[in-house]
Design a protein that fits this description.
The complex is a heterodimer of chains A (182) and B (192).
Chain A lengths: L2 H9 L4 H22 L2 H18 L8 H20 L5 H10 L14 H13 L3 H12 L4 H8 L3 H21 L4
Helix pairs in contact in A: 1-2, 2-3, 2-4, 2-5, 3-4, 8-9
Chain B lengths: L2 H14 L4 H8 L7 H27 L11 H7 L4 E3 L9 E6 L5 E5 L2 H8 L16 E6 L5 E2 L25 H13 L3
Antiparallel strand pairs in B: 1-3, 2-3, 2-4, 4-5
The chains are: A mainly alpha (182), B alpha+beta (192).
């Protein structure tokens, strides 16, 4: 079923919307949540919460890309859950830790971060990259996939993925500095 | 992690969670490239087919007796037939050098060059046309000016691409005509 048809079901308050959503995106959302929380029980609960949130947020929203729309809800719920649960260096913790590498050790956050500016800078940064690099970055830092899995999915060596991500973090650091965000 | 650093990392993580929908869809639907070994096998099979069905009969008829086929043209051909030292690892200090690795090889080929040649080649980093990572050029190439850093002219000249050492990467830029000229000249005069 096309995304548009599923969204129409949400808009007409037809509960089949959840069933079709689960059929089409359930596995992807579960995988995304598990990558970030590392707990199956949490992941299943989060995916159900995602459907509930989607049900409540439509019909106000009419997403063009339903998969991306749902994944943002799942990701936000998973990161929140992770932050509440644990400080282990797995899942979202490992990804956050890796991103924090680009922040200098003596860093002091004097100003409140402009979240929109940060998001727009990230979008510009990613759009300026080659497709392969963009995909690596999003798979690692948005989807929380492991380097091993990304390498397998992209048919590349693990060393190449690690080095590409390392170089991208270095470039992002320069851009954030230039934009006054770091 | 300090509190400020953690707060910023969390903010960054949240910002990543708000990137454009198109970027997420692109990553989720990205199709795996044909593995290198499969490409190589298909390429080899196709080459043999062409060789046996077309090229050999044509060559037998057209080449005069005793003549030799021409050396491969283009930079990959020049690099493949160059007189160079073959090593399994490369140190960046000491003599300025050009280092390359042909597709499918584990070893590196090295020639010594002058400091001015190395500097001129380093300056060509990312100056050619961009090939979006999908267009493999048959080789990866590095330059070291002897000061301890590596430069890869097939990548953009960002901080991350300088000084990282010899590593696997996908070619982003075709070499500029100027870089090709410098390399061909250096290979011609090298003694290995």
């Amino acid at each position: 079923m096309q995304d548009k048809d599923i969204v129409d079901l949400y808009w007409s308050r037809d509960e089949d919307a959840i069933r079709y959503t689960d059929e089409k995106y359930g596995r992807m959302l579960l995988s995304l949540s598990f990558s970030l929380t590392s707990l199956h029980s949490d992941s299943e609960e989060i995916v159900n919460d995602t459907y509930l949130k989607a049900w409540n947020s439509m019909p106000q929203d009419r997403p063009d890309m339903l998969g991306a729309y749902l994944s943002k809800i799942t990701r936000a719920l998973s990161v929140d859950r992770y932050r509440r649960n644990t400080a282990e260096k797995r899942g979202a913790g490992a990804v956050t830790e890796e991103l924090s590498d680009l922040i200098p050790s003596g860093f002091s956050m004097d100003d409140v971060i402009d979240a929109d500016h940060l998001k727009n800078t990230l979008n510009s940064f990613l759009h300026a990259q080659s497709r392969e690099k963009r995909v690596m970055f999003v798979k690692r830092y948005y989807m929380g996939e492991t380097v091993e899995r990304i390498a397998e999915e992209l048919g590349a060596g693990e060393s190449k993925v690690k080095m590409t991500l390392s170089r991208m973090r270095a470039s992002l650091y320069e851009l954030l500095k230039k934009e006054g965000l770091l | 992690m300090t509190t400020d650093k953690k707060a910023y990392a969390d903010a960054l993580m949240d910002a990543v969670g708000r990137i454009d929908d198109g970027l997420i869809t692109e990553a989720a639907s990205y199709k795996r490239k044909t593995p290198g070994y499969l490409k190589a096998a298909i390429g080899m099979a196709a080459s043999f087919l062409i060789l046996f069905t077309v090229m050999i009969p044509v060559l037998v008829r057209t080449l005069p007796r005793g003549s030799q086929s021409a050396a491969p043209s283009g930079l990959p051909g020049v690099l493949a037939s160059a007189v160079a030292s073959t090593v399994s690892s490369v140190e960046p200090v000491g003599q300025p050098r050009i280092i390359w690795q042909l597709d499918g090889e584990d070893v590196y080929h090295v020639i010594n060059v002058s400091g001015s040649t190395a500097s001129a080649l380093c300056a060509q980093s990312g100056k050619g046309s961009r090939s979006e990572g999908e267009k493999e050029q048959g080789f990866r190439l590095w330059v070291t000016d002897g000061s301890g850093r590596f430069v890869t002219p097939q990548l953009s000249a960002s901080d991350g691409n300088v000084g990282c050492g010899v590593f696997d990467y996908g070619e982003e830029y075709e070499l500029s005509p100027q870089a090709e000229r410098i390399i061909k000249e250096a290979v011609k005069t090298a003694k290995g």
